[in-house]
Specification:
With 287 residues, this protein is an alpha/beta fold. 37% of the residues lie in helices and 18% in strands.
């Protein structure tokens, strides 16, 4: 356990996306190959704090995570009170590429979970020239609705407590209590309507079979890691997805749920470390 000053450094950048300015918060730790991390719906970059504090990772990777606009420490745009936030694949992809441009990231690795795992599939189809490898956590091409999203943004419902309650069932049963609590706390702090808006992308937009067929893993390696305890993106969803993409590597992570990077770091690293080692070794071999 880290009892001193953590090596994580946080700053703000300004992103110009679709004609609007977004004051965006990001954190980083380490050096080496850029590893850009995407948080889940309604949460923020704190989900990756274990990874940024793992010296075995930061020795070789510059780990970076950003709070999406409207999330965490990032600002909502001017006029937000008259705007209904709704995440689209175009806006999400534009954020990722804008962060890469603003931070001057050359050939980074991209890792995303849940909605981040979904957008990784879009990136794999359209922007493989920008990344050296892609890692999808809890990735599925589509998700069937399993609750009424209107309850997430009502004046008579505490959305933060409801979001935390909904997410509690997606965490693996063996997760350490402290990490479970911290994961749920992230969800209890979301801005009004933000989780609901993220779920537009997660549930109303999907990756088509034609898009999946267009993914070329020879151009950019794609790894899929999915926790076994997840009814939002079930193991069979990821395995079915992998069967549609030649060359993809898919692994089901025993004991983990929907938030592997925040709910149980040690167990997660048993699966992520071999992937990072392969990416690093491949990079060393090719110069």
């Amino acid at each position: 356990m880290n009892t001193g000053i953590e090596p994580i450094v946080g700053r703000y950048i300004h992103l110009s996306i679709e004609g609007r300015n977004y004051r965006t918060y990001y954190e980083e730790a380490g050096q080496g190959i850029p590893l850009l991390c995407l948080h889940t719906a309604g949460a923020d970059g704190r989900q990756y704090r274990h990874l940024m504090n793992d010296a075995s990772v930061t020795e070789h990777f510059r780990v970076i995570t950003f709070d999406m606009p409207w999330h965490g420490k990032s600002s909502a745009p001017a006029g937000w009170r008259d705007t209904e936030y709704e995440l689209t694949s175009e806006f999400y992809s534009a954020q990722i590429l804008a962060v890469c441009d603003q931070l001057d990231l050359h050939d980074p690795v991209l890792i995303g979970c849940s909605i981040g795992g979904r957008i990784v599939l879009d990136i794999a189809r359209s922007h493989t020239d920008r990344f050296r490898a892609l890692i999808g956590l809890q990735s599925g091409p589509r998700v069937a609705p399993y609750y009424d999203r209107e309850y997430l943004h009502r004046p008579d419902v505490h959305a933060g407590e409801l979001c935390a309650a909904l997410m509690s069932g997606l965490i693996g049963p063996a997760a350490p209590a402290a990490d479970r609590d911290e994961t749920l706390w992230h969800y209890a702090q979301g801005g009004p309507g933000v989780f609901k808006g993220d779920l537009h992308f997660y549930k109303d937009e999907s990756t088509s079979d034609a898009d999946l067929a267009a993914i070329d893993t020879a151009a950019c390696p794609l790894f899929l890691l999915t926790g076994e305890y997840d009814y939002s993106c079930m193991p069979e969803d990821t395995l079915e997805l992998a069967s549609r993409i030649p060359g993809v590597e898919a692994v089901i992570m025993n004991g983990l749920g929907h938030f592997p990077m925040s709910e149980d770091h040690d167990t997660f690293m048993a699966y992520l470390r071999p992937v990072l080692d392969r990416i690093r070794t491949s990079t060393d071999a090719t110069g």
